[in-house]
Amino acid sequence: MTATSIAAETATAARRHAPQAHLRSLGRVDYEPTWRAMQAFTAGRTAGAADELWLLEHPPVYTLGVAGRTEHLPRVANGIPVVRTDRGGQITYHGPGQVVLYTLLDLRRRGLAVRPLVRLLELSVIDLLAGYGIDATARVEAPGVYVDGAKIAALGLRIRNGCCYHGLAFNAYMDLAPFRAIDPCGYSGLAVTQARSLGITEAPESLGEKLVRSVLKRLA
The pTM is what? Predict the structure, then answer.
């Protein structure tokens, strides 16, 4: 058995013995208090604390990650606030009709490294869309999920003491216009799309529930 296969087997065993993640459905909540609550939850975790998934949506807000550059700030005064946050990545937009799933996980307990976690979240979205006959893909150089080159889901994470918070945002049925004021995720001219534009008529709440099930299946 190679070192790689031993590591993979160890990680699989760790995930098998990790407690199930608890779901919290929060509805529409402001970005900054939710971010601060994630920080506090992660800072106060004990070794036996259960993982949590927070399912929610935000009022209109731009968030700029730790790698964010000022040239990626909104180019028009559209009244949408900008919050500098501590997740990875550049700038993105959150708004009503977008499914946001924050993943507060003990990665060490689950035997997960950052890149496999990113891949797990991407595959969860890809699985969800495949259920509607939609072929979606991920990009190693630009994390997220894409349909015909347009981004439908963005990812951003923060790791602290072996635990993560933040997570993914899936465009369900929302106003995409605010994306035109930014370079989404730092990429000039990047197209964005949403489930409704792809013919999926289910409500964001229903899609959020399906996304949670997809993530939990991948975490098992």
Answer: 0.89
Indicate the domain borders of the chain: 3-219
Question: What's the CA gap between 199 and 66, in Å, rounded?
Answer: 35
Whole-number CA gyration radius for the chain: 17
Amino acid in position 202? E
How does pLDDT run across 32-41, given as a tens digit for each residue? 999 999 999 9
CA distance 124 to 119: 8
Gap between the Cα atoms of 128 and 151, Å rounded: 15
Here the tokens at position 176 are 């995409």
Contact 63, 91 (CB under 8 A): yes
pLDDT tens digits for range 18-30: 668 999 999 999 9
CB 155 within 8 A of CB 121: yes
Q: Is 185 a catalytic residue?
A: yes
CATH fold of the domain at 3-219: BirA Bifunctional Protein; domain 2 (3.30.930)
Catalytic residue, chosen from 18, 152, 185, 215, is 185
- Residue 160, number of CB atoms within 10 A of its CB: 13
